[in-house]
Amino acid sequence: MRAPNCRDRGNARYAYTCSGYFTRATLDAAVSSIFELDRSGIAPGIYLTLNPVSPALLARAANRIKPRIRETSQDKDIPCRRWLLIDVDPIRPAGVSATDAELALASERVSAIVEYLEFLDWPAPVQAMSGNGYHLLYRIDLPVDDDRLIKAVLAGLADQFSDEQVAVDRSVHNPSRIVKVIGTMARKGDDLRGMEGVPDRPHRRSELLNVPEDLEVVPEALLRSLVAATNAVAPTVIPATGNTSTRFDCTPTGVRSWLQSHGVEVKGERRNGSKTLLLLERCPIDPEIVSNGGSDIAVLVGDDGKLAYCNKHNRGDAFTWHDLRKTLEPDYVPLGVADDGVDLSGFRIPGTVSTDLNDDRNDRSVPADPGPLPEDLLRIPGFVNEVMDHCLATAPYPNRVMAFCGAVALQSFLAGRKVRDPGDNRTNIYLLGLAHS
């Protein structure tokens, strides 16, 4: 059980996560603990892991809810997949509850999905209203490493049933996904009621709508048939945005629309110099990484059309825009990758997209040693030359190549104080010197 973004007071500056682990024999204790946490009102939402977790995790908080925890369940802690979650939400501004009209649109869409899957001979699911949308829970029996089958199922359904009003969440495919504890409150934003001229956006209590008497497992063959069926037809609501298109709308509005159409919640927008930051609630690449507030997880849209992805958490600081794009569009090919493996996407015409061959850098053999650098390449008049001369004159073990590298690195650092791109990448150069001891 997990409750992120808890605050003891509504105006508290810092949020924390509550979490606990319960065995089947202590379900009554779990219900009681969750009831008390929900009644306290400190948690915007209370969730459970969709799939079973490793029994060893019980030692983190055995049969109790612990506040201010740091470690939560990750994909590596899940032994198997037992549930497929289809999460259907109305598209609305981030951080607010849905209106009754928006919720009604989601209800119509989820009914269409159930009808479609029944036509494909799927068994009946558990149906629930999550507070601001709807959940369909289908019983499955798959290994954790499912060869991206669940991801493909959700992508196919999203292509068929998402539009500008309602979205099927593509991101809920990871094994350690959490899902709303049905019966608890959904407290997103203020409990807005009775404001003249503004539709109510109330906090709601989630509820079960239907639980089939016989909960049958969806056979793997039906899952794969759905993937084949949705791949065989064009999307019925919105066009795909992968490499089938020659343009990508590299404006804040266009990128926001693209993110929301792929089930990514944009919680806010902020200007920073010559770029716009689209602030995200969680990392689409690793959904276990949740924003601590501010711009720690964001998509950066430059005024010149350049795009970047920023994740300041330790587990996500290596993620790039290409990683984000490939996560949301599995068929996406990184743009502008030259035959020699050099990424030239930064030199493309702003606002355009070009297709290229698949990046096969991992398939190439290790290049041959090119030998020492030619001496004439190490002589650059001006600052670099002066720094090299100083290093060679004062170093106990002078080395011309290392002196050159150090001078270039120093110049890059100085330039990086003022020169940067829309992704806040600077000109800093980092060096690793390998030599005999």
Given as residue ranges, the uncertain stretches (5+ residues, pLDDT < 50) are 232-246, 336-341, 347-364
- Percent of residues in β-strands: 15-25%
Share in helix: 10-25%
What Rg is obtained from the alpha carbons, in whole angstroms? 26 Å
Structural class by SSE content: alpha+beta
- Tell me the CATH topology of the largest domain: Alpha-Beta Plaits
Please give the CATH class of the largest domain: Alpha Beta
Main pleated-sheet profile: 5 strands, antiparallel
Overall residue-averaged pLDDT value: 84
Q: Please give the CATH architecture of the largest domain.
A: 2-Layer Sandwich
- String of helices and strands: EEHEEEHEEHEEEEEHHEEEEHHH
Total number of helices: 8
Q: Distance N terminus to C terminus?
A: 52 Å
Strand order, largest beta sheet: 8-5-7-6-12
The outline comes out as elongated
Number of domains: 4
* Strand segment tally: 16
Overview of this structure, please?
Helix content is 24%, strand content 18%. The strands form 5 sheets. A 5-stranded antiparallel β-sheet has the order 8-5-7-6-12. It has a 4-stranded antiparallel β-sheet with strand order 13-14-15-16. The chain folds into 4 domains: 1-77, no CATH class; 79-238, Alpha-Beta Plaits (2-Layer Sandwich), CATH 3.30.70; 252-362, no CATH class; 373-437, no CATH class. It is an alpha+beta fold and 437 residues long. The radius of gyration is 26 Å and the shape is elongated.
